[in-house]
């Protein structure tokens, strides 16, 4: 064990002892500690001033390179803490928004920093194919990066578009299946006209809404970050996402918050009192 480690352990031991004392005794110790630290700070300030007068800046810099000297000077606020690098600050910004994205099975990663003013990121998981990923970029990630890195003026998402398989210039016939089965999900009277009914069937999480004789079916996922919608508030035919407040018209699936996106809808067919929906059955 080094001498420094022994000193640190001794300080910790005395702090643990003092912590057991009553408040009046601790106040005396804290006062003594502050007085000694103040004396040390004045002494250190004079030492630094003398080195500068003697034009011994190189010696001062060499001394500050020692981690113990640097730590003591930093404790007394006589040196500035090291400024994190640009990449460290960008990563800090991304880490700040990452928990929100991960809560919806999404994520984002740093792709590149292109000096002097551009950062490229890539969406992962549900964020990679979210229709409103541009809104997520501007409202969350871009704001966080610019907060920590004011020198960055452009944040660009790359490789965040879903792959469309093409053959001979035409969309692959496997991208859509027009022969999906119709499955019975519920009955008409179980679908509330003033709310939504959540249904899980063969790996599909869905919500159904009834307006008069019309029943609509949508994927139970907000077009923003795929948050479940079945616990959202419904007023005047408008469903509000409980996670981030995105609003949707339940008769059309249109998003009122971001008109460029909408809920994923499914064909509905009614036979008697039974409600059938055309679905891709997940195994």
Structure, briefly:
This protein has 283 residues and is an alpha+beta fold.
Protein traits:
283 residues; alpha+beta; GMP Synthetase, Chain A, domain 3; Rieske Iron-sulfur Protein; 3 domains; 4-stranded antiparallel beta sheet; 3-stranded mixed beta sheet; 15 strands; 25% strand; elongated
Description of the molecule:
- The chain is an alpha+beta fold.
- It has three domains: 3-75, no CATH class; 86-157, Fe-S cluster assembly (FSCA) (GMP Synthetase, Chain A, domain 3, 2-Layer Sandwich), CATH 3.30.300; 182-278, Rieske Iron-sulfur Protein.
- The protein contains six helices and 15 strands.
- It has helices at 3-19, 23-53, 57-64, 67-75, 86-102, 133-148, and strands at 106-114, 118-125, 154-157, 166-167, 170-171, 182-187, 197-201, 204-211, 214-219, 233-235, 238-240, 247-249, 265-266, 268-271, 274-278.
- Strands 7-8-9-13 form a four-stranded antiparallel β-sheet, with no helix packed on it.
- A hairpin with a 2-residue loop joins strand 14 (268-271) and strand 15 (274-278).
- Helix 5 packs antiparallel against helix 6.
- It is elongated, with a radius of gyration of 31 Å.
């Amino acid at each position: 064990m080094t001498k420094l480690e022994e000193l640190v352990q001794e300080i910790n031991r005395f702090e643990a002892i003092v912590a057991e004392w009553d408040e009046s005794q601790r106040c005396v110790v804290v006062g003594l500690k502050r007085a000694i630290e103040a004396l040390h700070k004045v002494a250190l300030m004079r030492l630094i001033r003398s080195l500068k007068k003697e034009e011994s800046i190189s010696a001062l810099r060499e001394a500050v390179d020692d981690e113990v000297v640097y730590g003591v000077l930093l404790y007394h606020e006589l040196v500035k803490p090291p400024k994190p690098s640009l990449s460290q600050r960008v990563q800090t910004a991304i880490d700040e928004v990452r928990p929100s994205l991960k809560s919806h099975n999404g994520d984002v990663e740093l792709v590149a920093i292109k000096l002097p003013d551009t950062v490229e990121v890539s969406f992962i998981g549900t964020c990679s194919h979210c229709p409103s990923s541009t809104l997520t970029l501007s409202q969350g990630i871009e704001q966080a990066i610019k907060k920590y890195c004011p020198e960055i003026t452009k944040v660009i998402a790359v490789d965040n578009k879903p792959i469309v398989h093409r053959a001979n210039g035409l969309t692959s016939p496997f991208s859509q299946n027009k022969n999906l089965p119709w499955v019975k999900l519920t009955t008409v009277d179980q679908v509330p006209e003033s709310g939504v009914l959540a249904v899980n069937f063969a790996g599909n999480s869905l919500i159904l809404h009834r307006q008069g004789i019309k029943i609509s079916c949508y994927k139970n996922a907000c077009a923003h970050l795929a948050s479940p919608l079945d616990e959202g508030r419904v007023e005047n035919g408008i469903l509000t996402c409980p996670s981030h407040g995105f609003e949707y018209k339940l008769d059309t699936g249109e998003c009122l918050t971001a008109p460029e996106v909408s809920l994923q809808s499914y064909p509905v067919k009614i036979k008697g009192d039974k409600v059938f929906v055309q679905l891709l059955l997940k195994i």
